[in-house]
Design brief:
16 helices; 61% helix; 332 residues
Length: 332
């Protein structure tokens, strides 16, 4: 069983590390790109398209504009592609984006492991408070969803996509992180401490992105299935679940909190008692096949985006150089 568990950890963590390395690389290249623009240096570094992954609100507005006008976001197209890829993954394989791909999810998981080493365990929030806090991410999601899809017309959304503010939103995001105020550092510090003490604190309570993917995951044909006849009620599945789902008490996990990490499947001591499978007699999805499926979907959608010209921004170096000196004025 331990060999089986090590195999599970190595496969999923390998995928997490792969995406984390890509994210760090994109971040470093983007910093060098902005430094190049700021110093008016000879352009030798191109802007990395994947940096739009950090602009989910822009992607949501871009989606609204695309649905309303049929025009795909040309300012941050990669952001919309990544957003659609995350939606696709969640509609097929629960919230696997959160536990396999999302760098914040990977960081949160790592912080929880630090907490376990420091204190021997992660602490639990009382059930009544847990239910209350879990609603926060849906309230935040509702606010943005209502403001964008009901508060903005298609023309307004299209105008925002082409606005100077949206054009430099990636730079504003970078400057915000580089010039954190005392309040910002305090908030981030508290989130880090809470993530060490309470497993998946940010993801479970405050991430509207995870809330959206959780709602979409209801559509997923693949879910954790428990064979009631062979289950020995050992409770290892529930104990291993990072989202505190009572796996041993259900035959089919519908919970919006399930991230498809498959920890429960690979902690189960009885073969094929737990599986990640779809209905209609389809075979269960193995660990490797899930990994290949996630990587395949990501690669295919990005390849299609590149071929169709929906990956790289149409922002030129000259546009960046013209807007950068006005950065503090834009949006005020």
């Amino acid at each position: 069983m331990f060999a089986k568990l090590r195999k599970h950890v190595s496969v999923r963590h390998a995928v997490q590390i792969l995406f984390a390395i890509v994210v760090v690389y994109i971040g470093l290249v983007f910093v060098l790109f902005i430094d190049q623009v700021t110093n008016n240096s000879f352009p030798v570094i191109s802007r990395p398209a994947g940096v739009e992954a950090f602009l989910p609100i822009s992607a949501l507005v871009g989606l609204k504009a695309w649905l309303a006008t049929g025009i795909f976001d040309s300012i941050h197209p990669a952001g919309l592609v990544i957003f659609l890829a995350a939606i696709t993954v969640s509609a097929l394989f629960k919230r696997a984006f959160c536990s396999w791909i999302c760098p914040i999810g990977t960081l949160s998981e790592g912080l929880a492991r630090i907490g376990k080493r420091l204190f021997g365990r992660n602490f639990l929030i009382p059930n009544w408070l847990d239910y209350l806090l879990r609603s926060v991410k849906y309230i935040i999601l509702l606010f943005f969803f209502w403001a964008i899809f009901f508060g903005m017309s298609g023309a307004d959304a299209a105008a925002f996509v082409q606005s100077p503010y949206n054009m430099v939103s990636d730079i504003k995001m970078l400057k915000f992180m580089q010039q954190l105020t005392g309040v910002g550092m305090t908030v981030i510090g508290l989130l880090l401490v809470c993530s060490i003490l309470y497993e998946n604190f940010w993801c479970r309570y405050f991430c509207p992105y995870g809330g959206l993917l959780g709602l979409l995951s209801v559509l997923s044909p693949f879910k954790i299935i428990r064979n009631q006849k062979s289950c020995i009620q050992c409770g290892k599945c529930t104990k291993s679940c990072p989202n505190h789902i009572l796996v041993e008490q259900t035959n089919r996990v519908w919970s919006l909190e399930c991230t498809g990490c498959l920890n429960c499947v690979h902690q189960c001591p009885v073969n094929e008692t737990l599986s990640f499978k779809a209905p209609m007699g389809l075979p269960s999805l193995s660990l490797k096949n899930l990994a290949f499926s996630l990587l395949g979907i990501w690669a295919v959608l990005i390849t299609i985006a590149k071929i169709t010209g929906h990956w790289e921004t149409n922002m030129t170096m000259e546009m960046y150089k013209r807007l950068l000196p006005l950065l503090d004025q834009i949006g005020h």
